[in-house]
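Suppose you are handed a protein chain with no further information: no name, no annotation, nothing but its sequence. What can you learn? This example shows the usual starting point.
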Amino acid sequence: MGVEKLENRLLSYVEASIVTFLWSTSYVLIKIGLEEINPFAFAAYRYTIASVVLLVYAFVCFREKMRGIDLKRAISFLALGFTGYFIAQGMQFLGLFYLSPVTVTFVLNLTPIFVLALSVMFLREKPSLQQLFGIVLTLVGVLIYFHDSIQATGEIVGILVTLFSGIGWSVYMVLVRHRLWKENENVIALTVYSMSLGALMLLGTTLLFGNAINASLSGWLIIAWLGVVNTAVAFVLWNRALKILKAYEQSILQNTMLIQITLLSVVFLDEQLALQKIIGMLMVFIGVLVVQLKARILK
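A reasonable first move is to predict its three-dimensional structure. Written in structure tokens, the prediction is:
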């Protein structure tokens, strides 16, 4: 591997790691904001602000790259907006309304397991013994984590919508990878157009169901920070890194958010974690890592 290529990979790892930290802080900020803001309205305003910032940035600095939108590109951007923003982010906000940040992240860490299961069912792929071991370890971790802890209907709803969010995100990641590598898509155009379409879907749903809000100053400051820094800046860095790193590499980095969010929740939200939950989290983290490390050989 050449020096320049190695430097580019290291830079991409740094960018992706910064993004995982920003997204980890988002969970804490969102949980605080949800005390007064409707989940879908929260997501809609966050991504609307981010889209406006990115649109201005893109048309000022990359005007030529934003042109030439044919039907095929438009459909792909629409699919990315629906899966990556309307489903993944919208359902994630709703999940955080019902569950703690740690539990939401824990559930989202199961996404690679469900992707593998779908591949076995629909693509006739055969999991290796290593992957089967990782799945078993993960499932045992899930049983330990949730043993005697699901006590309300709201928690069950939160788990289901969070799982739906994870499926949407996994589809988004695959589609982004395909557009960047196979179609040589411009990362700025992809990020801006897909996010803008997703934000319009979220905003339309918010207005349709009458969930517009009149937040406090602190609420709007949280929305603004999340929109500009943790979204506009973060998604450009994430998609830039995805052009150098493989999808599984970034997925592994993203899995570290479980640990980051746990620490942030303990410090800033006074969340208490029993030893049972800590053991379950560690087993899931290791199990998913085993599955993904095996998958890297196929990428």
